[in-house]
Amino acid sequence: MIMTDQDHDGSHIKGLLINFLHSFWPSLLKVPSFLVEFITPIVKATHRNGTVLSFYSMPEYESWKGSLAGNASSWSIKYYKTSKEGKAYFQSLDKHKKDFIWMDEQDGDAIELAFNRSKENWLRQYEPGTHLDQNQKLIKYRDFINKELILFSLADLQRSIPSMVDGLKPGQRKILFCSFKRNFVKEAKVSQFSGYVSEHSAYHHGEQSLASTIIGMAQDFVGSNNINLLLPNGQFGTRSVGGKDHASSRYIYTQLSPITRFLFPKDDDGLLDYLDEDGQTIERNWYMPIIPMVLVNGCEGIGTGWSTFIPNYNPRDVVANIRRLLNGEMMEPMNPWYRGFKGTIEKGASKEAGCSYTVNGVINEVNETTLRITELPVRRWTDDYRAFLNSVTEGNRDENGNLPKDPFVKDFRKYGDDAAVVFEVQLSEENMMAAKQEGLLKKFKFTTSISTSNMHLFDSAGVIKKYDNPEQILEEFFHLRLEHYEKRKKVLLENLEFELLKLENKVRFILGVVRGEITVNNRKRADLFLELHQKGFTPIPKKSKAVVAGATDDKEEAEDSPDVSGLRASDYDYLLSMAIGTLTLEKVQQLCADHDKLNGEVDILRKTTPTALWVKDLEALEMQLDALDKYDAEAEEARRKLKGDADGEAGFKVSKQAPKNPRKYTKKAS
């Protein structure tokens, strides 16, 4: 009997066990009821009258929720990852125990397809809403594979591969959503913020995983983010071990980076649809930054059937190509770029599937026996490289007490800190000559490679797509973003015209009160409402939320009933709720000035093209990039002053005079 959580990961465990048996003892699966599972609900819906419904898969629950129509508010929803009601389940064992049965070789083919063959076609054949019928006692292996295990594979893909539009995975998107919702400009502990995200975005996984994602979004060492969306206030990890040396989430703080709102402008907040989970508004399908962040910060992930790797690119190169597209010009090819990296990235041969690049560190020849290393290839972490140098240094023993087989380094010293790399390596003259003949970059493992042949992303429709180059990603993003600038202009105009209408009505209302044409004292609210309606004041209804299953409101408001015209008295609250001290001629003058100002903004916006809106945003972003460059330069200068000049303070005592022009190796020696 298999007993697992009822979520996607539980389905994965069942699938792994079935595949294990099928691989080693396939005949066992053909024994009737040899393998059984014990199922528990993943969602329970409780009605006000006490009726309880159990759902064993999310598609089953979603299908039921969609059928409720206007009867949703009377149900409360509770999610279960694991259940504490085991005693009740075991009392009705027959209901919760399901037997797996082998019908024919199609069952074996389904298992092979899910675990041992290419999975792309299998995943593409999935139809939304498909799920196992848990009312059946017997479950075919093929049905488990195609109706339950496939849900895990799809969820695994969504967690592993980001969207082309915003470059984010679902967990990162939830964090960004909560940062905007909270207006996260004051720092908070990562542990506290992860709790906030879990509460406000319906995050159903562990908070430790969430904290790790927050830390990853804030890291800014070489090889991590080109633009970190969150600030790393504390020890968020270094290039020494690739960020794994970050402190506990209880001791570090974060907040929104100043540049983040320039990438995701507030004017776009109302344009995209938010997801809804049982009455709780959560993150969007995707955000719409002004440049494709998947190119800026890159991505890496392995999902079921697909994997992806996209290197980082220079945001200034991305902005320049967007300007070219706006001007109707051809884009220029973009090459990978990592913020703070001092080495070289050289383009290799181009293929149909993508390009390959060679990433070189920086190594200088100080004299005939000494080398200075001042940069490592991207994502070659400092501690790993120090371990490599230890393994080729004379007299050093490994953890098992063994001497190196082919030592060629006499000694080395490390002078860098957690941000800068500085090694000085001493060799004999013979080993130096041999290393130069072989090529210093090759001998000292100073070269890595990156490729653009595996660039898979979810497109705007939620479909996995392979991109051949970064320009293809940018072009698809460009057309989508331009459409949203058109939407933004339309929405901004509607909002401004709406505010103008409110101002006009407020001016009329105050003048009516001042002149004695409208009496507000000692009158019934209903009579005043009718008078405003008869005099042609515009009713403005309050915004109402759609009712869904499990929806809960912090405040319950008594709704007034509409009259025969379909209007409510609350439709005039924007007038009747004005303070008595504002019903003056001075207030009228202020409102008229506001009206004229808004009119000017409307005229300017009507003349502004969507392209001009984008250019304005790009100019503001470039100013933030300038500030980021200035910050990096100041940090580098402060670090240099603190550590001292390594060239003057560090070094081996050598008898030979150093060459007047030390040679810098960034390419392989011939």
Notes on the protein architecture:
By secondary structure, the chain is of the alpha+beta class. Among the domains are: 2-160, Rossmann fold (3-Layer(aba) Sandwich); 170-308, Topoisomerase II, domain 5; 480-543 and 569-607, Topoisomerase, domain 3 (Orthogonal Bundle). Helices cover 41% and strands 15% of the residues. It contains 23 helices and 23 strands. The strands form eight sheets. It has a five-stranded antiparallel β-sheet, covered by helices on one side. It has a four-stranded mixed β-sheet with strand order 1-2-6-7. Helix 14 (315-326) runs antiparallel to helix 22, helix 18 packs antiparallel against helix 21 and helix 18 packs across helix 22. The N and C termini lie far apart (64 Å). The model is unreliable at 544-562, 646-650 and 653-660 (pLDDT under 50).
Write a brief structural summary.
Keywords: ATP-binding, DNA-binding, Isomerase, Metal-binding, Nucleotide-binding, Topoisomerase. This protein has 670 residues and is α+β, with helices and mostly antiparallel strands.
Topology:
Blueprint lengths: L1 E2 L4 H17 L1 H4 L6 E3 L4 E5 L4 E4 L2 H9 L8 E5 L6 H6 L1 H4 E5 L3 H11 L4 H5 L13 E3 H20 L9 H13 L5 E2 H11 L6 H12 L34 E2 L5 H4 L10 E4 L2 E5 L8 H5 L1 E4 L4 E4 L4 H12 L17 E8 L2 E7 L1 E6 L2 E6 L6 H10 L19 E4 L8 E4 L2 H10 L1 H4 L3 E5 L3 E4 L5 E4 L2 H45 L10 H10 L38 H4 L8 H23 L2 H34 L2 H4 L13 E3 L5
Parallel strand pairs: 1-2, 6-7
Antiparallel strand pairs: 2-6, 3-4, 3-5, 8-9, 10-11, 12-13, 14-15, 15-20, 16-17, 16-23, 17-19, 18-19, 21-22
Helix pairs in contact: 1-6, 1-8, 6-8, 9-10, 10-11, 14-22, 18-21, 18-22
